[in-house]
Write a structure and sequence with these properties.
homotetramer; 157 residues; Rossmann fold; seven-stranded parallel sheet; 5 helices; CHP00725 (chains A, B, C, D); LDcluster4 (chains A, B, C, D); LOG_family_nucleotidases (chains A, B, C, D); Lysine decarboxylase (chains A, B, C, D)
């Protein structure tokens, strides 16, 4: 069974986040990893496009019960029908989770992945978390580039 | 994107159901369909084994949040962490649903697929439903063999 | 904590099923049980109306993420946002499950309640299940009246 | 139908957070609001205890499919069986969401509530979010005391 990496990020993203997501997708496909994503637009579409361009496999875990609005680069579509609860499914399905950019939905995926705590979570850009004393909440790894994001997963030592 | 067919059935199954499931998996893989299943034992393991033996792709939608007890023939593992609610995800993910054998969990998948009503549902063996007047509840197609089950999906006219 | 009883049934129901559901709601409220239901129309609305008329408490577990289409007799509304997966929540929330009438959604609730197997499941009218040999699938209790349905739960010996 | 307020917070909390949660529960009950919470320990148990001491109604939305580990102050128990996806149910069930303290699970609830964006979200203590430019992410209201948290919901003008 191939390594699976969940890539999370907002539908409304910046051009830089889109480029980063595309590059993350390409690099994951080149290393033979299956990409898990939310299956819609923005970062989700970009990571899928990047992976497909490199002949990778992309699974889209949709919130809707049907394929409406799914991006065109998915190899496999899982229309869950459980709404935003599908964010948990995405968080649970990766051997690592890479987060590109920030939004409330994206943050919920990051938080659910950190909550179960079974796999490395790497952030590329996006929001920062401070605890009640103003210090960074420990746990999430911060990468400066798509390539470093993959390295920080520790999946390819 | 390949055709996806969800195959449902009990963990505790008869040898005949297991053989049927294996054959359904083989036939689906030969026709290029991705098999979606519950990812554990019994019918789920048999359909996965049949598809993998024919070099097919098998997605296991697990109830657990991790890979524990997943069968060894899955190409892609989706550990949902939503318990039996994952039956809805299985019911939603097929362009058709094929049910092999009967159990309460299996019945819930059949019922959820008939509930959304978007795709053909074909039963091979298993339980029968009568309405309050003792007549068969319409909607589910009943096949006499694995090959006929695939034909009755209407996906390969 | 009060006894909780989940009452399941179709949105599109017969006048007889509606009357049965209303009576089930009334009887449950009179015995001090909290009614759990799906929160929309048909059997769900009738059981809620019956319970509220007897000053009972009714919880509506909605499939939608908001209160749209909720019936007016709910004391507490739980808009899950998980679609039909909310049927599992209903099946899990009762100390007993009473099913009035039949539909695919209703059948999924009955099946999920039998799947976990922790509480009595009583059917009033609705569909019948036969196993592969044409015999009734054991487990569900069949009542002939609302009063008998409550008795068959075994919650009030 | 009564106002419903979801109160989120970690199982492992500080004595101060526990006191705040208890006070939030008491104040909500005194104003006639139904308290929705996760139903287990820490902040969840404290808000339930506070509300019950003031004769309020408390609904516990559990991740487990049964009542194991539920706190003793729940009026109504909803054992969802959908794991951490129940955080979405909590986020969707309040006319406002009050967050006491911080943890990854708590953050997922806050994020899911902000994601749907239908109700005010008020934080008492806990973590802070900065966007990519180091500025506070707008949207969540920050209260300095339990009483102010209730006021900031805008539900009692």
């Amino acid at each position: 069974m191939a390594i699976q990496v969940s890539v999370c990020g907002p539908r409304d993203c910046t051009p830089e986040e889109e480029a980063d997501a595309r590059e993350v997708g390409r690099l994951l496909a080149e290393r033979g990893a299956v990409v898990i994503c939310g299956g819609y637009g923005g970062v989700m579409a970009a990571v899928a496009a990047g992976a497909r361009a490199a002949e990778g496999t992309v699974v889209g875990i949709l919130s809707r019960p049907d394929r409406q609005d799914a991006n065109p680069d998915l190899s496999i579509v899982i229309p869950t029908g459980i709404g935003e609860a599908r964010n948990l499914v995405i968080a649970n399905s990766g051997d690592a989770v890479i987060v590109v950019g920030g939004s409330w939905g994206t943050l919920s995926e990051l938080a659910l992945a950190m909550r179960h705590g079974r796999v490395p979570v790497v952030q590329l850009g996006g929001w920062r978390l401070l605890d009640r004393d103003g210090r960074p909440v420990p746990g999430v790894r911060h990468a400066a580039s798509p390539a470093q994001a993959l390295d920080m997963t520790g999946l390819w030592p």
